[in-house]
UniProtKB/TrEMBL annotation:
Domain of life, source organism: Eukaryota
Cofactor: Mg(2+)
Ranges for domain AAA+ ATPase: 244-398
Reaction catalysed by this enzyme: ATP + H2O = ADP + phosphate + H(+)
Keywords: Magnesium
Natural source organism: Digitaria exilis
Family of this protein: Belongs to the AAA ATPase family. BCS1 subfamily.
Pfam family for this entry, one: AAA
GO biological process: response to stress
GO terms, molecular function: ATP binding; ATP hydrolysis activity
Protein name: AAA+ ATPase domain-containing protein
Length: 504
């Protein structure tokens, strides 16, 4: 007993001596000692901890790109581990094809997965204020509340090689299989929130095909051949050292089918479409982030580039000079303050850098489509060859285009009024949209689809004959209305304006 007391007395004396010595040391020694202790203790705990963790964040560093591995894990857990979860989340997203909600794990829900005898724990960590980072392997314990939104998996140390070499690759493979099986074409558009730009998508099933486009047959065949050749030209672009991308400039008056052409391209190639709104983007850095977050096999569209390009050119030239120039050309005037004249804006050079500049190589199998109503107003830097590979003019409706519309809308290939309509179309500039509007069945005539269905069910007889006669009369009415409207347009174009008449 006395020996035990002596030990405690000696320990107390040693601690008192250490405390006295510690108090006499300089302050910087205290800081160094605290740093060493705070570094060694977690390492010591990690050494004795038999489990390791991998964190998979939703976004990469600085939210530069969305982490596809995060999406892969979400899809994998949704298909394999939902039965064991007690906290679920239900959503009816824009991509849903039916009334079934999309079920997924709720935040802070933990599930267990088994793979080749290894037990693996998954947990969805919610968002927090801490900055996001890339996918990392972490052996240090950490407070989940200080981590960003991420999936965190834990496993025993002896299964490390199995998880890294087999388990995670299998998660990615299953994700790609699900994507292929549930492939749905999407239409993306960008929006801004808290100074950041993001993509949002909706299902995209455009009804337009090249058969429906009112255009010269040979010209249409050239476009189809060009698109098909591009889709199969991966090895060629790699051989010549060019980025696998292509640019199209669609120009023509409003109503000539530029948007319809984009839908037909998407249907032909099976690509997603990104509708880029430059007016909602803060600067070139945000534009760069949006471009890097687009997927391969996609069509990137900027509509009415003639209106937007005025603003971009103004930014490049500088406020007053460009504003006066645009005003003289009767274009949209964009006034810039001195504060934003040199920075904080999307510039034309920044946009062109992604079309065929340094950043154009970041991605493959992409098509850039610009549309404009006034090709003569565009900056020459935008229209030069090599930047926009093909310039496609969407012109007014002529007789060949009209016959395609008549076949699509009225299911006829010839009519007694075709000759007169052809002559009028050569004399009057009218758009395919205006012609199609005249060929649309209205009011009691909207039963054309029902008539076609009944005709298919019948093989002749008096009822069949009556239906065919009715459809023929409806076609007569549509074509007669078109002739009347074309004659009015011809007379209007031939009549000089009232002011001109007074001057004469």
């Amino acid at each position: 007993m006395a020996l035990s007391v002596e030990k405690w007395v000696g320990f107390g004396s040693a601690m008192a001596g250490f405390g006295l010595l510690w108090s006499r040391m300089p302050e910087h020694v205290h800081d160094e000692a605290r740093y060493i202790i705070s570094s060694l203790v977690p390492m010591l705990i990690s050494y004795f901890n038999p489990y390791e963790q991998i964190s998979i964040f939703e976004y990469g560093e600085e939210r530069f790109r969305r982490n596809k591995m995060f999406d892969a894990v979400s899809t994998y857990l949704r298909s394999t581990c939902l039965d064991a979860a007690s906290k679920l989340k239900a959503e009816l997203g824009n991509r849903s094809r039916d009334d079934d909600p999309l079920i997924s794990l709720d935040e802070n829900q933990e599930v267990v997965d088994n793979f080749d005898g290894a037990r693996i724990w998954w947990r969805l960590i919610p968002k927090s204020a801490k900055q996001r980072g890339p996918t990392v392997i972490s052996f240090l314990p950490g407070d989940s509340n200080e981590q960003p939104r991420c999936y965190r998996l834990a496993f025993h140390k002896r299964h490390r090689k199995l998880v890294l070499d087999s388990y995670l690759p299998s998660v990615v493979r299953q994700w790609r299989e699900v994507l292929t099986a549930n492939r749905q074409r999407l239409l993306f558009t960008n929006y801004s929130r808290e100074g950041k730009s993001y993509w949002i998508d909706v299902p995209y099933n455009p009804p337009a095909t090249f058969n429906m486009i009112a255009m010269d047959h040979d010209k249409k065949a050239e476009i189809i051949e060009d698109l098909t050749a591009f889709r199969e030209a991966k090895e060629y672009h790699s051989k010549v050292g060019k980025a696998w991308k292509r640019g199209y400039l669609l120009h023509g008056p409003p109503g000539t089918g530029k948007s319809t052409m984009i839908g037909a391209m998407a249907n032909l190639l099976g690509y997603d479409v990104y509708d880029l709104d430059l007016t909602s983007i803060k600067d070139n850095a945000e534009l760069r982030k949006l471009f890097l977050d687009t997927t391969d096999r996609s069509i990137i569209v900027i509509e009415d580039i003639d209106a937007i390009e005025v603003e971009l050119t103004t930014n490049r030239k500088g406020g007053k000079e460009a504003s006066e120039e645009n005003n003289n050309n009767h274009q949209l005037v964009i006034e810039l303050s001195d504060k934003n004249k040199d920075c904080g804006k999307v510039t034309l050079s920044g946009l062109l850098g992604f079309v065929d500049g340094l950043w154009s190589a970041c991605g493959s199998e992409r098509i850039f489509v610009f549309t404009t109503n006034h090709v003569d107003r565009l900056d020459p830097a935008l229209t030069r060859r090599g930047r926009m590979d093909r310039h496609i003019e969407m012109s007014y409706c002529r007789f060949d285009a009209f016959k395609m519309l008549a076949k699509s809308y009225l299911d006829i290939t010839e009519h007694s009024l075709f000759g007169e309509i052809g002559q009028l179309l050569n004399e009057v500039d009218t758009t395919p949209a205006d012609v199609a509007d005249n060929l649309m069945l209205r009011g009691s005539k909207r039963n054309c689809g029902e008539i076609d269905r009944l005709l298919d069910e019948m093989n002749g007889g008096p009822v069949d004959l009556m239906l065919r006669v009715k459809r023929r009369r409806e076609a007569d009415d549509c074509l007669a209305g078109l002739v009347e409207n074309l004659k009015k347009a011809k007379m209007k174009s031939a009549t000089p304006p009232m002011e001109d008449a007074k001057e004469e």
